[in-house]
Amino acid sequence: MEDVKEELERSQLQLYQLLIELEQSHAELYQMQNEFEESESLRKQMQVELEQIQSHLEHTQGELAQTKLALHRTQGELDRYRYREAIATQTISEREREYKLLVWDAWFAYRNGDINRMVDCLQSSLKCTSFSRTKTVSNWVKSWKQFSGEKGERFEVRRLNGYQEWKQLLQRMTRIKYR
Fold first, then answer.
1. How far is CA 6 from CA 9, 11, 13, 20, 165, in A?
2. Taking a C-beta distance cutoff of 8 angstroms, is the pair 120, 98 a contact?
3. In terms of domains, do 26 and 78 share one?
4. Angle (deg, nearest 10), helices 2-88 and 94-111
5. Which of 69, 89, 109 lies at the terminal end of a domain, its last residue?
6. pLDDT tens track, the chain, 179 positions
7. What residues make up the domain containing 65?
8. In terms of domains, do 48 and 126 share one?
9. For the chain, how many structural domains are there in total?
């Protein structure tokens, strides 16, 4: 009976040890749960801050793009003014000056992807030139190569030939010539 009593006491002692370990595990679990909740709260706060930063960045990028566009326009206007001043000193007629400025405007429009404006300028330049149609087109290309070269760029006629509007302009020019 003494053995049973000792066994019972050992079992109770083990039970108490298990209960203590269980309470420690519960305390650790509770602490971990609190830490998780704090981490989750911090994560949500960081997510909100990240979204605010992202929104601010997008806004700043939009402003930067507008500033770049405005700067590009201003640079274009300055370049146009300089070109106009350069041709003003040449001993040419007002009509020739207008022709050269229209060719420059067409190049600038082409350079900026405004193909319709390019065609309009080239179409208008036809009214100001005494060159033949073939010589006029040759002059456009030669002038555009020069303008591009001055900007450190390379002008490729092949790229121009890829535009339907350009092809249509050339077709209209040849139709007018043979009528």
1. 5, 8, 10, 21, 105
2. no
3. yes
4. 170
5. 89
6. 788 888 888 888 898 898 889 899 998 999 999 999 999 999 999 999 999 999 999 999 999 989 988 888 888 889 889 989 989 888 999 999 999 999 999 999 999 999 999 999 999 999 999 999 999 999 999 999 999 999 999 998 889 989 999 999 999 888 754 44
7. 1-89
8. no
9. 2
